[in-house]
Q: What sequence folds into this?
């Protein structure tokens, strides 16, 4: 990837971080109806995957933790912020909320409140692309915890059996809520489990931008060229709580991890991008994010009006 | 007009719609049948409803592994992205293994997108006791399914309605569960040429009468009609209303019949508590209280799983005699 | 008498029963919490109900992968073979992913064995809207669950009932789903020392009155009581009945109240069609027709998924004002 | 295994075959309420597995195709025949039927109508044994088709994560109803999928009695000794239709397979058991089976009375 592209990617990463930071502050100020699950630590990897996609021909589904995925796909941050705050001009006028972000025009078929529930849906996008010959692919993001859910395990096999153009992306952050991935997965390798189901699979350090770009483009390309499914397991850190506000007492002493955003920044410095540029980027996106979330906060809550369009005619 | 069985009416509707719109796909277990096995003749589904489709529409007719969650979800995702999938879930008893995809994914996506995402998804499934299939191949969970916001649930009793409701489901915008009674597949009936769609939410007066209103669905319509003939000999004229769709329910037609008869019996094959019968009684008690001349009644199976033994199963299912007896006591009250 | 929150009452009941019977095990996601992580302090469940159990009962307190089908089924099998498992399913919305194990396995096994196999299984789960959790973390599917033959379904509104119903479930012989309202965990109330079991099928008169009967469950009991206080200012005395168990329903208590008031309003948080409200109206229309002075009414959320935005969610949920208004129009009819 | 033991095992195999043959005839005569799924081809393998079990400490669950498993466990054939015919003295007085055989006293926790539904239940038996320290194990039988069902895939992982003393037995007969196992499983190896989940696993030719005995005792022993789960994939032929009466047109030309019962018989002949003894065994068990099913046919259907004990107090 050219330095320019990489700089823009890192900028997006910082924007996502800043956007979620602003959301977290909005939450603390009581402006968010529900709990928010932040992507802290996964931004760089998610951007690397999106880099190989061609939405809206490609359609992506994500888990409860999908703000980063949505922004990486290019979903309008203002419409997203409004949705997460439950306000006018939100993607669904506030009916869906943080766990139900839907923006197919940008390639986001949907995020989901049920662990693993989004995975079969992406198989549907893959099937659509296959039957209609669009050249698109279905992509789904899910966590290490979801890897133990029937919906995910069945769909891996289904995609192999039906030869679906589908990319599975498992973000292994070592935790499902308070439970260790190694415990819940019985110590078995996630990528190994996928591979045994007959799917092309690779593991990647999701904090390594170069490697992530390479693996994503290799496996994404495989899916597009062969029409067969592929699977990526990415190790990513969960830099914060399960949800914003989670005290994480259960986590004991946290291991020190280097923030993938910093690692990506170092790559840019290595390539000769001046530190000042990086600083400037961070400041700029922080302001942008802040401004967007502030504007969203100023929007009225019209979700009741949106609801009433669904209840006219009324309940039986 | 032609005479067709329910099986053939459904099959014919699938053939004609699939020929007209290549966005329609059909998928499920054994619905081609014999895939991967050379020289195998296709099964066309274990009840034969999808027979002949594979030969005509090949890639649009898809056998699946026994992975209901994955393939129902796949169909839902496909419906969100341009296709009109028709999924067969072999028995409605199996919806338990994929209930999340039904109740949380397929049923909610349109609402959660605030109407931006279409969801033309048809789920064909079978139901019904009476053939010794036991507790996990005989249920009729239409009441349970109808509790789910966002779903249309239909249960036809005739070949014309079966084909017509299937067409409405396939041509519609939202997710529909079509519950086909196993015991009715061979039932013959007249159908209009071209098998016109039957709208959801509109019932059918299966038999006119003035003394008592019987509301029944699917195979119970036939038992109710049989009971009505018995009752006619005693001078009791029962009106049999077949709502055809469980949800949306045709309250108007039911209440109109009540205005005439003042007496209500609901006959259902789903579970005894909080099922279809209770829903209809509630519609009438709330909306037709002044028209009721006597306490409404219901006739449902007891609140147990479907038993296997022949005598138990016969006792478990409401029969024409039970219906007639219930009407007699109702008419006399 | 002590004052406890619902959370603490449940926790206390678990502690005392587990100390008394080592056949009782507790399992679910994050119910220890922090397993596999060194020096982690235990979470005790995401709502804190199982706090402290791991430290006391170690191997009998089991964290599971996010595999509801596998662990609910495991608990069912364990109940068939000598243990008394208490499973936590974090939100009732997740029951969709393991509905087969609930509806076909846990609920049917006793019947299918003709009573030879015991099934002392308790499923604790949460429900309820009002905290902005959105469409898949807010449902209250008690009506849907109550359609399943073989299940007991309970939904307490007070700390005493929460502990008491939990005890009945754990000490009982059949599968029970205990629906704990997320919004009530912090609710305080007086409890009798020793937290005595509360029998299934027996309701509680939450407030006496003579003009109108309001039947409500769980958090709706509190809203109904609030409404009753508002109404009392206008001289309308509403009786609030809390059946406590959805199934078996205490028809007797409801009908007895009807004999006094002649007027019925059912308030429910589950879905609008074929849910708890329809079931209760059916009980009354069939069994108390002569006592009804006016058409029964129900107040439920509209037939949509639970919306996320604050205003929408508030509009969606029945509130005390809505209840009072419904009672006023009912009392005037 | 000593010749005597093996002869008795083969006799049981022939008895199962004859018993199901008699049931099939009862079905043809209209005496069976529902469809019956016969074990033809799997008897020898199932007997080999049961040979390592110690019921009722060990508890077994099975699929829709469980007559053979039940008989191999030693469930009373008369009570079974009565249940399958829906008659008095049936295991559940006819309430359950062919797909719901329950006889925990003999180690049969239950058979099941839902593909894969029985698998988590056996994990419960394993957990019970573990928590109560009985030394027993949980065992579950399921088909190749079931291997694609979430319940099965989740339970394999659960058993590894919780270290349950549980034996998974996948009978791969190449078909799920009319669908080829190779198609439905995407061509992936079943034993390979299991192994990748971290479970001790082996494949065996289920038509080879010696090998089946060895593998069953090895993996059964592993479960008992280590308290950890194990997995057996057995290739067995499906000698008849999916259910009795299935025309199997979809199957095309059937490959010729040698009947495992004949193979087991050959083993006995090799060991010097006279052919006449084998013939005598077959005749004897055929008569026994016939007699039992005839007696069952003569029993009255009292299932309505059994039902009424569940409905007293009545529906709400
Ligand atoms: C079926 C289901 N079970 C449980 C939950 C509750 N839950 C939400 S997120 C979560 C942890 C998910 O872990 P993982 O898949 O690793 O994703 P991460 O949160 O780490 O991104 C759990 C248990 C749920 N939403 N759905
Ligand atoms: C959840 C579920 N889906 C589908 C079925 C219908 N069905 C019954 S048996 C069967 C095939 C099972 O194949 P396999 O697991 O290989 O077992 P086999 O019949 O070959 O012994 C199917 C699809 C079912 N009973 N349950
Ligand atoms: Mg995780
Ligand atoms: Mg098979």
A:
């Amino acid at each position: 990837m050219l330095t320019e592209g990489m700089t823009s990617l890192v900028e997006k990463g910082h924007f996502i971080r800043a956007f979620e930071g602003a959301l977290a502050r909005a939450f603390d100020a009581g402006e968010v109806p529900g709990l928010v699950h932040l992507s802290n630590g996964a931004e760089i990897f998610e951007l690397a995957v999106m880099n190989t996609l061609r939405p809206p021909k490609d359609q992506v589904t994500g888990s409860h933790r999908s703000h980063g995925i949505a922004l990486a796909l290019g979903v309008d941050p203002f419409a997203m912020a409004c949705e997460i705050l439950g306000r006018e001009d939100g993607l669904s006028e506030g009916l869906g909320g943080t766990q139900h972000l839907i923006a197919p025009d940008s390639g986001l078929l949907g995020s989901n409140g049920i662990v693993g529930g989004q995975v079969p849906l992406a198989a549907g996008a893959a099937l659509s692309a296959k039957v209609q010959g669009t050249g698109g692919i279905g992509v789904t993001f899910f966590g290490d915890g979801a890897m133990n859910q029937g919906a995910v395990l069945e769909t891996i096999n289904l995609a192999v059996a039906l030869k679906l153009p589908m990319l599975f992306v498992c973000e292994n952050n070592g935790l499902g809520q308070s439970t260790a991935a190694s415990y819940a997965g019985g110590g078995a390798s996630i990528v190994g489990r996928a591979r045994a189901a007959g799917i092309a699979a690779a593991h990647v350090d999701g904090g390594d931008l170069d490697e992530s770009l390479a693996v994503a483009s290799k496996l994404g390309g495989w899916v597009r060229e062969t029409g067969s499914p592929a699977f990526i397991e990415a190790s990513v850190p969960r830099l914060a709580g399960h949800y914003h506000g989670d005290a994480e007492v259960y986590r004991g002493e946290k291991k020190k991890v280097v923030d993938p955003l910093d690692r990506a920044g170092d790559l840019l410095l290595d390539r000769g991008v001046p530190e000042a540029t990086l600083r400037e980027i961070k400041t700029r996106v922080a302001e942008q994010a802040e401004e967007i979330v502030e504007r969203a906060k100023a929007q009225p809550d019209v979700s009741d009006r949106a609801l009433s369009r669904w209840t006219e005619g009324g309940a039986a | 007009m032609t005479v067709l069985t329910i099986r053939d009416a459904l099959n014919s509707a699938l053939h004609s719609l699939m020929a007209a719109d290549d966005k329609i796909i059909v998928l499920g277990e054994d619905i081609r049948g014999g895939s991967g096995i050379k020289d195998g003749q296709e099964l066309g589904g274990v009840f034969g409803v999808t027979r002949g489709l594979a030969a005509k529409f090949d890639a649009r007719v898809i056998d699946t592994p026994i992975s209901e969650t994955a393939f129902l979800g796949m169909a839902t995702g496909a419906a969100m992205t341009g296709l009109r999938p028709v999924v067969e879930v072999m028995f409605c008893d199996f919806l338990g293994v994929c209930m999340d995809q039904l109740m949380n994914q397929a049923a909610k996506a349109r609402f959660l997108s605030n109407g931006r995402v279409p969801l033309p998804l048809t789920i064909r499934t079978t139901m019904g006791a009476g053939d010794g299939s036991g507790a996990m191949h005989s249920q009729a969970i239409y009441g349970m399914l109808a509790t789910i916001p966002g779903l249309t649930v239909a249960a036809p009793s005739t070949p014309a309605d079966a084909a017509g409701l299937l067409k409405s489901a396939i041509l519609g915008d939202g997710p529909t569960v079509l519950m086909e009674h196993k015991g009715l597949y061979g039932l013959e009936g007249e159908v209009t040429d071209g098998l016109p769609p039957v709208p959801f939410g509109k019932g059918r007066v299966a038999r006119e009468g003035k003394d008592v209103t019987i509301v029944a669905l699917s195979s119970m319509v036939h038992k109710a009609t049989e009971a009505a003939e018995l009752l006619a000999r005693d001078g009791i004229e029962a009106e049999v209303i077949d709502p055809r769709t469980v949800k949306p329910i045709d309250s108007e037609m039911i209440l109109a019949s009540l205005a005439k008869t003042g007496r209500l019996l609901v006959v259902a094959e789903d579970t005894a508590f909080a099922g279809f019968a209770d829903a209809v009684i509630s519609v009438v008690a709330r909306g037709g209280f002044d028209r009721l001349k006597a306490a409404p009644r219901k006739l449902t199976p007891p609140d147990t799983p479907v038993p296997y033994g022949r005598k138990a199963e016969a006792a478990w299912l409401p029969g024409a005699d039970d219906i007639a007896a219930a009407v007699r006591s109702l008419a006399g009250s």
